[in-house]
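Please, structure for the following, as tokens.
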Amino acid sequence: MKTVLTVKLDEDLNRVLSERAIREGRSKSFYVREGLIQYLEDLEDLEVADAAYKDWAADDFKTHKWEDVRLRLGLDD
């Protein structure tokens, strides 16, 4: 099911969006939808990275030697 969403854009952004849509043969809705998907995915990635950083900080920024990681994961050829 699709939902209608109204978005208010300033004139400059609307002009750029309209020009892109015409040039690429896509609808303005396509670009708004794709941009929103990308933005939400980026926010999710940021949350995951932030949580990983906090875990690393809580572990006193402990690091591991590449050789040890490779052996532990069975990546040694």
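The chain has one domain: 11-72. The chain is about 70% helix and 0% strand.
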